[in-house]
DNA sequence: AAGTGGACCTGCTAGC
DNA sequence: TGCTAGCAGGTCCACT
């Protein structure tokens, strides 16, 4: 469900409220992508530190170690002191003195993994393959250009992969390419330096704007307050196959790349 | 090494 | 109205 903006908005909505709280209990539902990695009781009495984000992952420090959380395709987090009885899709509750953090995830592609350190084991492996943060100074046209030059896959797939830059999922990758005027089928190594510059800028502005607007193009997105996403961000191409382009008089097209839907305007976006 | 396709799991929608 | 096929925001892993 969530791409970087949704994950970041979620983080901002509960991080300051949970920080400093002490864990009093843990409840597990059905299995997620990976096992928790420790007995649930081992989390009790630990104190929650400052929640951070890396790509689409959240890191929740608990004493010396912490929990790595991912929302997968359909996950969301809620934090509150009056939690309803867990439903069939509520697979993780972290009960603290200040409220309960609950992961709801129907498809269970999400994850909650304990690690004694973000630099150890599975967590280190997962975080280790991630590309740069889009808002990091290290992510600019030069960086993107150099990384794309080493790849032959279509630029859309290179963006989605997350090994170059993290955070742009299927929706925002489509939107950023539209904003940059680049055909998603263009081979990565054929993207010129100026176009890489424009694309880097488009990735940053697309994701940044989505974070600022607190939300999302996702219909069912809610932050951890349960605040319904206002659906403030209008997708220019995503999900609009057959509809008129918002910039020219062309028609938005849907193709499949690497098994995922891609939406673009063939008139506005060039190879 | 890089690219490709299948896998994970459930819910919703469109179409018959 | 009810069933089925197809699709969905992610990303790991095995294989070529």
Q: What can you tell me about this protein's structure?
A:
By secondary structure, this protein is an alpha+beta fold. It has two domains: 4-128, Alpha-Beta Barrel (N-terminal domain of MutM-like DNA repair proteins), CATH 3.20.190.10; 141-264, Helicase, Ruva Protein, domain 3 (Orthogonal Bundle), CATH 1.10.8.50. The protein contains six helices and ten strands, in the order H-E-E-E-E-E-E-E-E-H-H-H-H-H-E-E. The two termini are 29 Å apart. The relative contact order is 0.15. The model has no long low-confidence stretch (mean pLDDT 94). It binds a DNA duplex (16 and 16 nucleotides) through residues 1-3, 6, 33, 56, 70-74, 89, 105-110, 126, 150-153, 157, 160-162, 169-172, 216-218, 220-221, 238, 258-261.
How is the secondary structure organized here?
Elements: H1 4-18, E1 23-28, E2 52-54, E3 57-62, E4 65-70, E5 76-80, E6 90-96, E7 99-104, E8 111-115, H2 121-128, H3 141-149, H4 155-161, H5 170-180, H6 193-212, E9 253-257, E10 260-264
Antiparallel strand pairs: 1-6, 2-3, 3-4, 4-8, 5-7, 6-7, 9-10
Helix pairs in contact: 1-6, 3-6, 5-6
This protein binds a DNA duplex (16 and 16 nucleotides) through residues 1-3, 6, 33, 56, 70-74, 89, 105-110, 126, 150-153, 157, 160-162, 169-172, 216-218, 220-221, 238, 258-261.
């Amino acid at each position: 469900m969530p791409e970087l903006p949704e994950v970041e908005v979620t983080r901002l909505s509960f991080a300051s409220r949970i920080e400093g709280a002490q864990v009093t209990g843990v409840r597990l539902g059905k299995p997620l992508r990976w096992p928790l990695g420790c007995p649930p009781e081992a989390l009790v009495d630990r104190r929650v530190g400052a929640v951070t984000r890396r790509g689409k992952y959240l890191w929740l420090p608990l004493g010396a170690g912490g929990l790595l959380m991912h929302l997968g395709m359909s996950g969301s987090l809620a934090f509150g002191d009056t939690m309803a009885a867990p439903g069939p899709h509520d697979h993780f509750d972290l009960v603290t003195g200040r409220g309960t953090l609950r992961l709801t995830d129907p498809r269970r592609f999400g994850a909650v993994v304990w690690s004694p350190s973000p630099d150890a084991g599975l967590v280190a492996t997962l975080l280790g393959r991630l590309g740069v943060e889009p808002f990091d100074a290290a992510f600019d046209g030069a960086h993107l250009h150099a990384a794309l030059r080493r790849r032959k896959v279509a630029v859309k797939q290179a963006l989605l992969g997350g090994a170059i830059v993290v955070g742009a999922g299927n929706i925002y990758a489509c939107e950023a390419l539209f904003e940059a005027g680049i055909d998603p089928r263009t081979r990565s190594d054929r993207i010129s330096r100026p176009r890489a510059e424009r694309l880097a800028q488009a990735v940053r502005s697309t994701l940044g704007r989505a974070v600022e607007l607190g939300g999302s193009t996702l219909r069912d997105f809610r932050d951890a307050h349960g605040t319904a996403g206002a659906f403030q961000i209008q997708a220019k191409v995503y999900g609009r196959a057959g509809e008129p382009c918002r910039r020219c008089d062309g028609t938005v097209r849907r193709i499949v790349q690497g098994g995922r839907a891609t939406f673009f305007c063939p008139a506005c976006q060039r190879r």
